[in-house]
Design a protein that fits this description.
By secondary structure, the protein is mostly helical. The chain has twelve helices and no strands.
Length: 266
């Protein structure tokens, strides 16, 4: 099997056809499905754009893009069944993606090792951290998927925070209340360069800081460069309370990003 542009085009067509069964006359439901469909297609395109900086083999580039396309395929059954994208209240959408791919025999044309790699990357794209694996190739694909997934989420919230209209994105922010307070545990995690735990989220501001803290989980400099150049974090900081603690986080984040980018300059 040759992984090339033709293959990827065919898989995008299959993906769109698969989504037809989730159409709804309810505009809010349809908006939720469209949200995830657009996210999946953008992650695929972004992966194809950035993968050549990580993978030297052109087939690995297409494979990375394909994984980006199907990484959230569990989201559609999740929302159809539960009416929510909140994993903590429903089911792990990455696990559900694996079940969907297996049931539909989507990966049957790949060899067993590549199937395991695809499943590993998908299962680890939304976890707190990537589980250990003896094959570094598995780790790299998982790291790359996590990075491009985060970039597109930054893109989405950048637009909606700018417009101050989360709208259809309320499902994405876990329906958290938009209150002025911030959980100190969230602030502490970022200052200590740790990932914010989902269990510590109490408000929309906590969720915004969780997203900002993702910069400490970006694996590849090319991904961090995109986030920095697009000024996604600046938008999120602008819609956070203007407090001394938030300003301290902003100063630290910007400093740490600059240091990491400067370290990679020739």
């Amino acid at each position: 099997m040759i992984l090339d542009e033709k293959y990827l085009k065919e898989k995008k067509s299959w993906f769109r056809e698969y989504l037809r069964q989730f159409g709804s006359l309810d505009k809010d439901v349809q908006a939720a499905f469209s949200l995830k469909a657009q996210h999946s297609l953008r992650v695929c395109d972004l992966a194809e754009e950035l993968a050549p900086f990580i993978f030297s083999d052109s087939q690995d580039v297409i494979l990375a893009a394909y994984i980006g396309l199907i990484h959230d395929i569990g989201r559609f059954e999740q929302y159809h069944t539960y009416g929510s994208f909140a994993d903590r209240d429903t089911v792990d959408h990455a696990w559900l993606a694996q079940q969907v791919l297996s049931r539909l025999k989507v990966l049957q044309d790949f060899d067993s090792n590549t199937i395991d790699l695809i499943n590993f990357a998908i299962l680890n794209h939304n976890r707190y951290s990537i589980e250990n694996h003896s094959d570094p190739r598995f780790i790299i694909f998982a790291q790359f998927l996590r990075d491009v997934d985060k970039i597109d989420i930054f893109y989405f919230v950048h637009i909606h925070y700018q417009q101050d209209a989360i709208g259809q994105g309320k499902k994405v922010v876990l329906d958290l209340p938009d209150l002025p307070r911030i959980n100190p545990a969230v602030m502490a995690a970022i200052m200590e360069e740790r990932q914010v735990a989902i269990k510590d989220l109490r408000t929309l501001n906590d969720f915004k800081l969780l997203q900002i803290g993702w910069v400490y989980d970006i694996n590849f400099v090319v991904a961090l460069k995109v986030i920095h150049e697009k000024k996604y974090l600046d938008t999120i900081f602008r819609v956070l309370p203007d407090t001394a603690a938030v300003r301290d986080i902003c100063k630290k984040i910007n400093h740490d990003i600059t240091v990491r980018l400067d370290e990679t300059k020739p």
